[in-house]
Design brief:
Rossmann fold, 12 strands, 2 domains, five-stranded parallel beta sheet, Arc Repressor Mutant, subunit A, alpha/beta
């Protein structure tokens, strides 16, 4: 099982890497929230361990971003002990909250409990809407049985939307996913790419019914 650790404390990350690897976990790590999003998209972790107080994009922002396209379990490990911090993290989409310092045995037990809920990476779904079939494992799209050619960027946008159909994916999540930095601003590229996708996948691109814009927030894939 692959675990992504997002924490800017290198000593803690090193300790967790050694401990978790000894218990059979595969570890990938990122020092800030923006790097964690890019790594998550690349590595497809089965479970997340997230600190709250990271630079660039904090833990709450990371949890919200991940929840825009993934249902993988998230455990927050933080030195913040206030109930308000715990409530905010859980409301953002975290599954559990452990306060630093913690006992390793307790963390391992919580990881095992969350791991039982993790979806296996091999379970990449096939998403369908109208006459379109998106095969996330094969990285292919068909419309009416015919293969649809997408550019790499078009595919990455569609993949992100299709991995959590029906859920809002924010503009910032898409921008970070595509260009690896939360500092990137939307200068019209996303609208252009969505317009191209609609031309290829919607029956009436001018009146889309599946690739929808949520004004001021982001985009949503509505399936049948």
């Amino acid at each position: 099982m692959k675990v992504l650790i997002a924490d800017d404390d290198p000593q803690l990350v090193r300790a967790l890497r050694i401990t978790l690897a000894a218990h059979g976990y595969e570890i990938v790590a990122a020092p800030d929230g923006a790097a964690a999003i890019a790594l998550a998209v690349k590595e497809r972790p089965d479970l997340y361990i997230v600190d709250l107080g990271m630079p660039r994009l904090d833990g709450i922002g990371l949890v919200e971003a991940v929840r825009g396209w993934s249902r993988a379990p998230i455990i927050v490990v933080s030195g913040r002990t206030g109930s308000g911090d715990k409530v905010e993290a859980l409301d953002a989409g975290a599954d559990d909250y452990v306060t630093k310092p913690f006992q390793v045995d307790e963390l391992l037990a919580r990881l095992r409990a969350l791991a039982r809920r993790a979806v296996e990476a091999s379970d990449d779904p096939v998403v369908t809407f109208a006459d379109v079939t998106v095969d996330l494992a094969a990285k292919s799209v068909r419309r009416g049985g015919e293969r649809v050619h997408l550019t790499p960027t078009e595919w990455r946008i569609l993949e992100l939307l299709a991995r959590n159909p029906g859920s809002l994916v924010t503009r910032q999540t898409l921008l970070t996913h595509l260009w690896g930095s939360e500092q990137v601003t939307d200068t019209g590229y996303l609208r252009l790419y969505l317009s191209q996708l609609r031309k290829k996948l919607e029956a009436d691109p001018a009146r889309p019914t599946h690739l929808l814009t949520e004004q001021g927030m982001g985009y949503r894939l509505v399936v049948d």
